[in-house]
Amino acid sequence: MNTDWNARIRPAGDRAMLITLDDPRPVQRLASALRVHAIAGVEDVLPAAETVLVTMHSVSYGVQVRRELVALLDRLDHEPPQADSPDVSRGTVPETEPVVEIPVRYDGADLPEVARLLDLSIPEVIAAHTGTIWRCAFVGFAPGFGYLTSPDGRLTVPRRTRARTAIPAGSVALAGGYSAVYPRGTPGGWQLIGTTDLRMWAVDRDPPALVRAGSAVKFVVSEE
């Protein structure tokens, strides 16, 4: 059955459109396709968990952008994902694509609980976390807070039943199928598995965010 993509595209003001896809995987695939095959008039592409916001340079591009979005969505719906595309990575990325390496001290307070929830040993959790290429699906919650997905989702754990009132900057965490690094001290309910000294957000850096939507990320065990 063909999807009515027009019904999935809604105006968001006069210079933006919101595409609702209801699943992170096609969101990542659409965002990647829009970066590779730019549509004339599109200013920015902002993926979230189940939506993609497309902003335009001018309201005059609205009809053309909507038409091309529908065509692109229909094509992606009928084409199988490519084996080497970012959203279906099996732990590799194209040689030309940079990978952000994040050294981690696996000393998080929730690491034993994460191992218990997954029925793994602590070394197995660490090996799984460092043994894949993570992909930033979208950024939210706080500047520089990237929601990272793995190809197989094997480290999916629930959020803590009780959130912490303060989580230090640099905390590496898991929750709901995502991994993330807290860019600043903030309350939060994710499971803490480690810490890093890297600054995820720095206003004196260009761009300020170390990880952006679409970035490939690899965690490595810190040698410190």
Describe this structure in words.
- This protein is α+β, with helices and mostly antiparallel strands and 224 residues long.
- It is built from 5 helices and 13 strands.
- It has helices at residues 5-8, 24-36, 62-78, 111-118, 122-130, and strands spanning 9-11, 16-20, 42-47, 51-56, 99-104, 134-139, 146-149, 164-167, 171-175, 178-181, 186-188, 191-195, 216-221.
- Strands 5-13-6-7-10-9-12 form a 7-stranded mixed sheet. A 4-stranded antiparallel sheet has the order 1-2-4-3.
- Strand 9 (171-175) and strand 10 form a beta hairpin.
- The longest helix has 17 residues, at 62-78.
- The protein is elongated, with a radius of gyration of 19 Å.
- The chain starts with a helix and ends with a strand.
- Mean pLDDT is 87; it is low at 83-95.
Low-pLDDT residue intervals, each spanning 5 or more residues: 83-95
Question: Biggest sheet: strands side by side, in what order?
Answer: 5-13-6-7-10-9-12
* Gap between N and C termini: 55 Å
Count of distinct strands: 13
Count of helical regions: 5
Average pLDDT, all residues: 87
Main sheet makeup: 7 strands, mixed
Order of helices and strands: HEEHEEHEHHEEEEEEEE
